[in-house]
Design goal:
- The protein is α/β, with parallel strands linked by helices.
- It folds into two domains: 129 residues, Aspartate Aminotransferase, domain 1 (Alpha-Beta Complex), CATH 3.90.1150.10; 254 residues, Aspartate Aminotransferase, domain 2, CATH 3.40.640.10.
- It is built from twelve helices and 15 strands.
- 45% of the residues are buried.
- The model has no long low-confidence stretch (mean pLDDT 97).
- Bound molecules: pyridoxal-5'-phosphate.
- The site of pyridoxal-5'-phosphate (PLP) has 14 residues, from α4.
- Pyridoxal-5'-phosphate (PLP) binds next to α4.
């Protein structure tokens, strides 16, 4: 008799984007001529940087010849990519990271989701609310939570509201926690933690023997000098923090797949007998057992973003999206809406007018302006009453969407 992992039954269906798609399809059925503009999904629209394309073409040619063909690569990633990551993202910012502290992967969704495997199921997790749902769902699957309550919160999880009231800087937990998920810049709010705020978290983790799981998937979008690009810019973070990075939003790799995780050898956690163990060794064991490396061709494409021309191309794409963000942010602010994010991130988070519930605002925007966004409630209970628009769309479509909202949305 095979039994299932019943923790999976605690999870509600993958409701958010399915429900968005259902409502848009119903609207289009009823209004076949409507020109619906989608500013909902968090996916890029510009093609890969030319430098990555050229590098991947060359890598395909290598694969075609017996002398240069490559089979299984190192599970942790090729040196050419790890060295480039360290030099451009860490050494250049005065941060010491050694090659065996970097683990290349097929993207940071897998890493953010899988990292919990190396922690005890007795650990208590703290998550900001609203946030990227992967952190919570993977912990539910692992049995680190109780059931989902009527208030939309899982039992045993410490939710840290991240809202307008606290300036999108969550308060430190008022009960003991072991694993703290921080996402900066945050998806969906597009907001960040300042150096002082992040220092508070690192100090808290050091004092309370907790580990910070720091998702920096959108680090490349940070423009303000006071926002750390890496948690390791904060003193002491090398003892308590794991950092996740991705090529997806930085360089258009959402469909190509490449990311990496940094685990300094100085980050440790306890076994039940009190002995301390480096998490780097546990993750290395997990990674090499369950993962067989990211494709060589893809790693060549990723490494190419660190060349001079690659850096220019990536900066160009990011500037394009951030101009979209400016258009959305300024366009909506001019209408008197309360708008957050969009300065250090490609997400704009707005407070729904007249305190409309998120889904009601979704329908209103779809019906009145034919624009699709994402209801904030889908990212956690504290997202209710908010709404996310993304800057990843096409420029013309973005401009058209804002013009339509200005003309047609009844506020
Ligand atoms: N982390 C955050 C906060 C994200 O928003 C996303 C993707 O949307 C990811 C991680 C996953 O990125 P990847 O494409 O590298 O799996």
């Amino acid at each position: 008799m095979a039994y299932i992992n019943e923790n999976y039954l605690k999870l509600p269906g993958n409701y958010l984007f399915a429900e968005v798609a259902r409502r848009v399809a119903a609207y289009k059925d009823a209004h076949p001529d409507a020109d619906v503009i989608r500013l909902g999904i968090g996916d890029v629209t510009l093609p890969l940087p030319a430098a990555s394309i050229a590098a991947m073409h060359a890598a395909v040619d290598e694969m075609a010849k017996k002398e240069t063909f490559r089979g299984y690569g190192p599970e942790q990633g090729y040196d050419f990519l790890i060295d480039a990551i360290i030099e451009k993202n860490y050494t250049s910012r005065g941060i010491a990271v050694s090659p065996d502290e970097v683990f290349v992967s097929d993207g940071s969704k897998s890493d953010c989701g899988n990292i919990q495997e190396i922690f005890s199921t007795d650990d208590v997790i703290a998550i900001t609310d609203p946030v990227y749902p992967v952190y919570l769902d993977t912990n539910v699957m692992a049995g680190r939570t109780g059931a989902l309550g009527a208030d939309g919160r899982f039992e045993g999880v410490v939710y840290m509201p991240t809202t307008e009231e606290n300036g999108f800087a969550p308060a430190l937990p008022d009960q003991p926690v072991d694993m703290i998920y921080l996402c900066c810049p945050n998806n969906p709010t597009g907001t960040t933690l300042s150096r002082a705020e992040l220092t508070k978290w690192v100090d808290y983790a050091r004092k309370n023997d907790a580990v910070i799981l720091f998702d920096a998937a959108y680090a490349a979008y940070i423009t303000e000098p006071d926002v750390p690009r890496s948690i390791y810019e904060i003193e002491g973070a090398r003892d308590v923090a794991i950092e996740f990075r991705s090529f997806s939003k930085t360089a258009g790799f959402t469909g190509t797949r490449c990311g990496y995780t940094v685990i300094p050898k100085t980050v440790t956690a306890k076994a039940k007998d009190g002995s301390r163990h480096p998490l780097n060794a546990l993750w290395s064991r997990r990674h090499s057992t369950k993962f067989n490396g990211t494709a060589y061709i893809v790693q060549r494409g990723a490494a190419a973003i660190y060349t001079d021309e690659g850096q220019k191309q990536v900066a160009g794409n990011i500037a394009y999206y951030m101009e979209n963000a400016r258009i959305i942010r300024e366009g909506l602010s001019a209408l008197g809406l309360s708008v957050f994010g969009g300065v250090n991130a490609p997400y704009i988070w707005l407070k729904t007018p007249n305190d409309l519930p998120s889904w009601e605002f979704f329908d209103k925007l779809l019906h009145e302006a034919n624009v699709v966004g994402t209801p904030g409630a889908g990212f956690g209970p504290s997202g209710e009453g908010y709404f996310r628009l993304t800057a990843f769309g096409d420029r013309q479509a973005t401009e058209k969407a804002i013009a339509r909202i200005r003309e047609k949305l009844v506020l």
